[in-house]
């Protein structure tokens, strides 16, 4: 009679129960998008990309990502307009986590982003480790090794 490894089966079940978290990057800078995409995929996330605010809003509504990384300054619709529209359709206890990234130095923009309940507000240029830590926190994930 063949032995069955219960540890392996439990691990396999966990893999099938927990699909990769889906992260939508909304940014018009191809270099930033590519570096973020590569870093997230290397950590097992599924990555979706939108190149402007209108496309980002449509994808956020259609694809139901677990997290959005949103640039503030973009063509067609700014990150703030995207965020305002997303928040209009969400309950306070079920807000989609959003990390806003921007090259803007203004403190008023940061205050407005916080008023709209962003998970984090990160100024460009940023260290990729800083963004990845923010992603982990926004998704409520444990640190590796915990």
What's this entry about, in short?
It is built from six helices and five strands, in the order αβαβαβαβαβα. It has 146 residues and is an alpha/beta fold. It has one domain: Response regulator (Rossmann fold).
The CATH class is identified as Alpha Beta
Can you name the CATH architecture?
A: 3-Layer(aba) Sandwich
What is the count of β-strands? Answer: 5
| Biggest sheet character | 5 strands, parallel
Binned, the helix content reads: 40-55%
Radius of gyration: 17 Å
Describe this structure in words.
This protein is of the alpha/beta class and 146 residues long. The protein has one domain (20-138): 3-Layer(aba) Sandwich (Rossmann fold). 45% of the residues lie in helices and 16% in strands. The protein is built from six helices and five strands; from the N terminus they run αβαβαβαβαβα. A five-stranded parallel beta sheet has the order 2-1-3-4-5, with helices on both faces. α5 (107-115) links the parallel β4 (98-102) and β5. α3 (53-63) packs parallel to α4 (79-88). The longest helix is centred in the first third of the chain and has 13 residues, at 30-42. It is globular, with a radius of gyration of 17 Å. The model has no long low-confidence stretch (mean pLDDT 87).
